[in-house]
């Protein structure tokens, strides 16, 4: 392993595809849960399918979709889309935590799994995970955290099939939950993937980690999101991996009263507040330290990932 002690080459826009391998040697043995890691919220929503059935929604929405699908579908699409770039582009931009909301279509007798956010995605889980596996083969020292959750429409048999799919695809690249991972340990043992599985069906698998806590403000105002995260910091960080979510949450009233807007336009207008807050944060084990910082439209929002990566300089 070639040493880079003393060299600080972190999150410039051009080198984020391999930022972990470019970290200074002094950071190689720090637990990954103490590093600053950029993530994408609802990673797979860039490929939502407007013609798909609705995922479990309030009955009123199903009625509206039956009566006026020409209004309901575009609305679900523009407010459900939180990312615009393919998963490989997100990884190239430095994103290392992927928020994967998995579902099985109701009435579908196949074993295909999709992602979902109001409506299902065009891309299947198998195709997306295969893309991630291919990317990792070209970036041997990068580590990706896959946070699998929601599991709408999955029964016990579906969970067995999905877990088998994940383990078969990534094989010995998966870091077991018995390891306290640092970059040095991951590289030494050949691991590149950490999989958290937010369902009891995964509890007996050594390859799967428990749910990673996500600090979600559930607020429309960016200042209220920041205030919520600051309040959480005063309570203190959890042990291990956890996520601070820099994502806005719209409500029905706002959507109805702002018909020409979308989550993208709302986020774009608010992102400056988030980008001012990020550089004031610190990674590490301290009570108020952060670990994974997640956002919407992470590729389009300039320097989000590199700002998070640059926080690791504070550990030197």
Question: What does the model show?
Answer:
It is a single chain. This protein has ten helices and ten strands. It has helices spanning 59-67, 69-80, 87-92, 125-137, 156-170, 183-189, 222-235, 252-257, 263-277, 304-310, and strands at residues 37-40, 97-103, 114-117, 119-124, 144-152, 193-197, 208-209, 214-215, 243-246, 292-295. Strands 1, 2, 3, 4, 5, 6, 7, 8, 9 and 10 form a ten-stranded mixed β-sheet that branches. Helix 7 links the parallel strand 8 (214-215) and strand 9 (243-246). The two termini are 20 Å apart.
Note the topology.
Elements: E1 37-40, H1 59-67, H2 69-80, H3 87-92, E2 97-103, E3 114-117, E4 119-124, H4 125-137, E5 144-152, H5 156-170, H6 183-189, E6 193-197, E7 208-209, E8 214-215, H7 222-235, E9 243-246, H8 252-257, H9 263-277, E10 292-295, H10 304-310
Parallel strand pairs: 1-2, 1-10, 2-5, 5-6, 6-7, 8-9, 9-10
Antiparallel strand pairs: 2-3, 3-4
Helix pairs in contact: 1-2, 4-5
Shape: globular
Beta percentage is 5-15%
User: How many H/I helical runs?
Assistant: 10
State the end-to-end CA separation: 20 Å
State Rg: 19 Å
Number of strands: 10
Largest sheet: 10 strands, mixed
Determine the fraction of residues in helical runs and give it as a percent range: 25-40%
The sequence of SSEs as H and E is EHHHEEEHEHHEEEHEHHEH
Quickly give the structural class. Answer: alpha/beta
Low-confidence runs of at least 5 consecutive residues:
1-8
Average pLDDT rating? 92
Key terms:
single chain; 316 residues; alpha/beta; ten-stranded mixed β-sheet; 10 helices; 10 strands; 33% helix; 15% strand; disordered N terminus
